[in-house]
Amino acid sequence: MNADGSEARRRVAMNMRRLRKVHGWSQEELAAQCGLHRTFVSSTERGERNISVDNIDRMAQALNVDVVELLRPDSALGED
Q1: Which domains does the chain have, with CATH numbers?
Q2: In terms of CB atoms within 10 Å, which end of the chain has fewer, N or C?
């Protein structure tokens, strides 16, 4: 992982977007489910935001997955 954490942010962003689409939700709907603002979800999905553990947990709960799913590397997903 890079010292700046960008790899972890990229993983969270990619997994969040993938899981949001599985639910058929817009960024606005995911934000409502998490109790967060849409611009927060958007910047997180772009990997621009250093998201807290608490907010990762909120997103995981809304997406009905364990927090580990949001940090899983690409190769563990079986998708490219």
Answers
A1: 6-73 (1.10.260.40)
A2: C
